[in-house]
Amino acid sequence: FFCSIVCFLGVSPPCYGQNQIYIDSLQNCLNQANSDSAKVVWLRKLAWYYLSDNPTLAEPFIDQIQDIAEQNKDDFFLAVANNYRGIHARREARFADASGYFQNALRFYQSDEKYELASTGPLYNLGIIHKNFGDFDKALKTTLQTLQIQKKHNRNRIVSETYNSLANIYKDLKEHDRA
After folding, report:
1. By the 8 A CB rule, do 144 and 166 touch?
2. How many other CB atoms are there within 10 angstroms of residue 67's CB atom?
3. CB of 171 closer than 8 Å to CB of 179
4. Cβ(130)–Cβ(96) under 8 Å?
5. Cα dist. 103→8, 49, 116, 153 in Å?
6. Could you give the CA distance from residue 155 to residue 17 in angstroms, rounded to a whole number?
7. CA 56, CA 49: separation in Å to the nearest integer?
C-alpha cells in the first residue's frame, strides 16, 4: 500500500531536503517488488531521478533494467534501458553514443503502434542531438514528428517542451518569425 502511495505521489522528486526520503522510499518499494515488471517500475523511477541530477548514479538501475530485459527476453524493457542510456550519454555530451541508444529504443517503439507515444522520448532527444550537430533539417523533421505524436495523444504537458525545442531550432536557423 505504501509503495502505491509513493508511486502516485512520487511522479516528481520532492525538493528541499526530502530527496533522501524519496530515494529511500523508492528503494524500499523496489526491495518489496515481487515480480520483474514491478521491479522495473521502481528501477525506472530511481534511474529517472538520478538521470535528472547525477546521471552516473543512474547506471546501476539502468543495468538492472537491462538484465531483467535480457533474462525475460523483453524487448520493451530493453528499449527502456536503451532510452535511459541515451539520456545519460546525451547529458554527458556523448552524442554519437546517445544517438545509437536512441535509435535502438526507437526501432522497438516504432515496431508496434501501441508504443507510438513511448517513441516520443527517443525522437525528442534525437532532435536535440541533430540540432547540436547542426543538422537542422533532421532536427526539424524529428521534432515535428515528436510534436505530432504528442498532440495526437493529448500530452499537453510535454508538448510545451517540444515547442520550446522547436523554437530553439528556428532560432539557430535565424528564422525568428517561426521561433
Report:
1. yes
2. 14
3. yes
4. no
5. 31, 23, 14, 22
6. 30
7. 11
User: Grid coordinates in use for 124?
Assistant: 525528442
Q: Taking residues 131-158, what's their average pLDDT?
A: 93
CA atoms within 13 A on the CB side of 38: 12
- Tell me which of 51-55, 77-81, 100-104, 128-132 is least confident: 51-55
The 8 Å CB, 24+ separation contacts for 8-17 are 10/45, 13/49, 13/52
Share of the chain above pLDDT 90, in %: 77
Per-residue pLDDT at 18? 53
- The Cα–Cα gap between 129 and 112 comes to 24
| 115 closest CA partner among 140, 82, 67 | 82
At a CB cut-off of 8 Å and minimum separation 6, what does 83 contact? 101, 102, 105, 121, 122, 125
77, 69 contact by CB (below 8 A): yes
